[in-house]
Amino acid sequence: MPTRVPPSIETLVIGAGVHGLSTAWHLARAGRPVLVVDKSEVGSGASGIACGIVRNNYFQPAMQELMAACVEVWESEAETLHYHPSGYIALGPQEQEQDLIAVFERQQRIGYRSELHVGTDEVTRHMRSLYDDWRAPGLSVCLHEHAGGYGFNRESMLGLAGLAQRAGAQIATGVEVLGFEFDASGAVTKVRTSAGEIAVEQVVVAVGPWIASLWSMLGLPDRLDVRQPDGTLVADQEMWTYWYLQEGEAAFDPAVFVTANGSSSPVLHVDSAQPLRADDGRLITDEPWGVYFKPDRDSIQGGAQPIPQGHRFEVDPYPTGNVDPGFPDMWSASLSHCLARFEGARARYRQVRSGGAGAFTVDNFPVFDHMRPNAFVVADSNHGYKMIAVGREVARILQGEHSSLLHPFRYERFATGDLHPVSHSPYPWS
Length: 430
Description:
Blueprint: E1 8-14, H1 18-29, E2 34-38, H2 46-49, E3 53-54, H3 61-76, E4 83-84, E5 88-92, H4 97-109, E6 114-118, H5 120-130, E7 141-145, E8 149-151, H6 153-167, E9 170-173, E10 177-182, E11 188-193, E12 196-205, H7 211-217, E13 223-227, E14 233-238, E15 241-245, E16 247-250, E17 267-272, E18 276-277, E19 283-285, E20 289-295, E21 300-304, E22 307-310, H8 327-338, H9 345-348, E23 349-350, E24 356-360, E25 367-372, E26 375-379, H10 390-398, H11 413-416
Helix pairs in contact: 1-6, 1-10
């Protein structure tokens, strides 16, 4: 039987991932009629295959404040959202000391629970207090966040959908958006879908890596001029850049990835300038490298450097876990480099549907803004899964309130030069 949609709704949310479902949940909790549509299923896109890491290791003050709010939402419904508050540990070489010190100091100012260790001896001592087989050399800074952790991606999204539906939101899957109709002011009056037209008062677009196509349907520009914080004008920039996120699994029992007191391990993120070798001594790379890994349902899951894809990328069919040929060797070697318990990881490696593609904005940070008078766009620049509080803030804005947390991510920052500071991390999301 074809999916049925109502002829009209107060708020139509496009996308049944973390942002769309969170927005619907918070609007419905406030008693507002809301419908979520998705061309596939709940959590079938980026949110459903994300590694599931929840962290506050951001150099940018606005990102830190927003992520502190996100952690609060994760913790408020931890069981329903399949969230594990294990913490997060970022380790790096000397080049990253000042960045992580600045991150730690801001975390302390906003009351976010963390501790900092600086110097190779102090870092080694702290890590061996947690893991007696820790053996990664040359790391001189460690930021240990006691808040944060990880979730089980698909289960989290189903749990969030359940919260939204119990609050009164409707969810219609298998409904593809085909276009919009506008009035003279530029406001959306109707949304054309594969299940018929829907008259709307408000629209929220929250479609992850599919943002470029919906952005185009809204008549928004795919190129723009950007003014840097120093006033320099950089003309005619591409709005979207795609990266492919490389992730995989190693078939270890998650019970082996515990700390010295038997607790589930925090998420580990290691950036290193040390040569990386396989267990047999073969050199994998002598260039700086970085990885992250965490316990999963029945394995250890994580990833490494993303692959740049340029300004155009075919999102459909959505990526199913393709990685660079050298990724399995590199990621497996990194596990063993850090913890002796993971020797032999390469033989246990398996490729899974994880990672996927991300659509990054021109400055690599989200755009959360009204892009038409009644059309709010959530373009998360691949920061998505962890940012569960964005939907709460969007719901507030749609009800006439101001969100100080989302204000730094308005679209006009590109024209005014009010951009976010850039860290020394090699990753576009840091």
